[in-house]
Amino acid sequence: MDLKNEVISIKDEIIKLRRNFHMNPELGFEEYETSKFIKEYLDKEGISYESYAKTGVCGIIRGDLEEKKDRVIGLRSDIDALPIEENNKCEYISTVKGKMHACGHDGHAAILLGVAKILNRNRELFGGTIKLIFEPAEETIGGARYMIEEGVLTAPNVDIMCGLHLDENINCGQVEVKFGAVNAASNPFKVEVMGVGGHGAYPSSAIDPIVISSNIINALQNIVSREVNPLNSAVITVGSIHGGTGANIIPEKVTLTGIIRTLNSEDRQLVTRRVDEIAKGIGLTLRGKVKIEIEESYPMLINDKNSVNKLRNAAIKVIGEENVLEQEYPHMGVESFAYFANEIPSVFYFLGCRNEEKGIIHPAHSSLFDIDEDALMIGVAIQCQMVLDYLTN
Question: According to the CATH classification, is domain 185-294 in 2.60.120.260?
């Protein structure tokens, strides 16, 4: 098979698929039309599929060869959009008010459907099984965990997983991949500080939860600067504070919300424990009461060494070694592909979609985010090459 020509032959179709997804964005676990569209496409291509996690889909392709028949590889795409009003001026702008594919998931889905089409019509070239996993709710609570709970990685058991993310900081035609830690773990938290309300002119007759909250916010930053190993990265962000109704009124309660980001399990345990201890300790010291909830959210995304090497080798065949870059530092953002990577050997890489000449420079999660659609073909080719290498060599 001439993979390059195979991909070129469906270029217009891949772009059309991406634009269809882009024009019809749906939020997490609301992707009913998106899911329906994916299933109809798989039906048209003669690819069987199963449903998972309400709106998730898993397509299944089985190779014709006996060789490597016991091998199973999983490829993942996320499919949800964001609650953003799009401000791009293009023919494929979102048709849904207040919703937009501002993180490239439309491109991810189109890439995986393109991979499905090419590999399904070349089943005689490989053995084994391919699972095409379309994950819902990546941007919110991580549909991956629910798909895993419902058995998407079993029957047959997936041996290796690969996922990608379009990246506007990397030029189109290049990819970045990293050994080890790729994305941080996250722990959202909520702190309720209870005091005693009173008149702003007479603070001694009250217990001021705003003052207590201010002390908590400042003290939490000392965890990163003085308790986490300075060679490790961690972030504690308090993103919202709500309390009070007037300038001369001491309120009864203040609510803080925030998030913790860490890159190893030891720091995750340390930081979450100390956030709890410090918040409660300051509340007690300043005569208030503190209630804190810390959620165990997305895990760290750790790339498997052998899986990274497989991806690198495939990418080098497609775009040349000079265009396969090594990601220097982990991202402190989270990625729900981590749930898959926690279960089986996996690789997650970043596919460049930046093109300054075309004005494609805006960050993900912004109302002006867009991609150089030439990146879609590169994504299809690399995914296909990795699958073919794994199911034939």
Answer: no
